UniProtKB/TrEMBL annotation:
<dbReference type="InterPro" id="IPR052931">
    <property type="entry name" value="Prophage_regulatory_activator"/>
</dbReference>
<dbReference type="Pfam" id="PF05930">
    <property type="entry name" value="Phage_AlpA"/>
</dbReference>
<dbReference type="InterPro" id="IPR010260">
    <property type="entry name" value="AlpA"/>
</dbReference>
<protein>
    <submittedName>
        <fullName>Prophage regulatory protein-like protein</fullName>
    </submittedName>
</protein>
Length: 64
């Protein structure tokens, strides 16, 4: 089954990050880099974005 790829607006919506935050985090190695899907187009593998989201700490505090 082929993997889905997400363009930048979809990645921004899924992560809640802005364009500048995405590129800053890619530069520091904290976010996966996109792959080239055309001469002037890039996209992120959906599995890489989902894995990054799964590794993020939850914003909801744990119940005691």
């Amino acid at each position: 089954m082929p993997e889905n790829h997400l363009r930048r607006p979809a990645v921004e919506a899924a992560t809640g990050l802005s364009r500048s935050s995405l590129y800053a985090m890619m530069g520091s190695g904290d976010f996966p880099r996109p792959i080239r899907i055309g001469r002037r187009a890039v996209a992120w593998p959906e599995s890489a974005v989902l894995a990054w989201l799964a590794d993020r700490p939850s914003a909801v505090p744990a119940r005691k």
